[in-house]
């Protein structure tokens, strides 16, 4: 028999304290009835003997210390799920906000996820095609991977998220059995409307599940949003056998909500005021990506976070980098130069890329051309540093050509526009044309067999409208 407790001992912000409560469990859901008969939801967040602290989702306004009635429900927070969630919009706590009514639930799932035995994990292979060259070629997103986007204030990470939702597809099935769970935390109404409008205009809403937590919503709801989103993703992946891509933004907003909540509980702060358990809390989100034995579906994550002051050593990107398998970094300099998407390829990497590309997945030459593009662009940065010291006129003919390559790489490879969706073949062919601008002898990451098959300097000159005389002729004249 469920007991109902009358009265509260203390009200502190979004937290209420009850004493003499027996048998309570951590994360247990609570129903709170106000004097006027309305009810609110909460959960147990702290237990000290028979004293419990309850987090009230809708806030503690109008709560009374004397007349409030509290009932423990004996279960954790659960999300109602069925295949009907596709195409629907929910708030951060998993309640429908699109005016289409409640979800007819096939089952209720714990938002904290089910324990996943590491032995049952399958190593991620095969890739998800985003249609964005800088990601698909140089930091490939592998199915079952967690690959964050490190952004900064004023950078177009929202546009990039929308573009990935519009274009992403499972490579070998052309999108069949593919769904996207999109969660936004702490966004303004304008941004939330932009996401909804963009997905509807692109005609992809029927395969998207949206969770929206607005900036004026309770911060408690913000801490639930990614867990609700991941629960929906796990249902679609492991019960409906779909490949699911989870994109959630902004992890920094989530961490700031966690910091505020931790402070209200009186916990000892860690670095920059964040709770000491921030690492394990983030891991409880990120580690819900993957593939498990016996399941046809998979969960892939792209968490987006903004780095305060573009500081990659800030606790949020720092801890995220430890847990995830690489990162995609956006560059303020490239953004200022009008390049979209402004992906800074040198600090970006995908640690699982090597096992999910190549013959049978993308194309046999993928790893080789990616290595050569990295090497060439890295040399471009060295040449730019040298130019700042001695001036461009004093550079060798080859170094001048590397500068030309760098401009072409940024303008044609990185800069592709919001509505351009490139196949992996188009991306790799573009990469070959770019390296073909350089002399064949300079391409030391490619073997002769690949060069014989793909290298064509004349084609590159024609494609990029390079004015003769070319670097090869300059080198020949210098040798003479």
Task: Walk me through what this model shows.
The protein has helices at 133-138, 157-167, 189-202, 219-238, 251-264, 278-286, 315-323, 332-336, 366-390, 397-414, 424-435, 448-454, 457-463, 471-479, and strands spanning 4-6, 10-12, 15-18, 28-33, 39-48, 51-56, 69-76, 78-81, 89-91, 107-110, 121-122, 128-129, 149-151, 169-170, 178-187, 208-214, 243-249, 291-292, 298-306, 326-330, 343-350. The chain is of the alpha/beta class. Helix 3 (189-202) links the parallel strand 15 (178-187) and strand 16. The relative contact order is 0.11. The model has no long low-confidence stretch (mean pLDDT 89).
Q: Give a count of the beta strands, DSSP E runs of length 2 or more.
A: 21
Termini Cα gap = 97 Å
- In the predicted model, the low-confidence regions spanning at least 5 consecutive residues are none
Q: Which structural class is indicated by helix and strand composition?
A: alpha/beta
How would a textbook summarize the main sheet?
8 strands, mixed
| CATH architecture descriptor of the largest domain | 3-Layer(aba) Sandwich
> If you average the pLDDT, what whole number results?
89
Specify Rg, calculated over alpha carbons.
26 Å
Which geometry do the CA atoms define? elongated
SS element count, helices:
14
CATH class of the largest domain, please? Alpha Beta
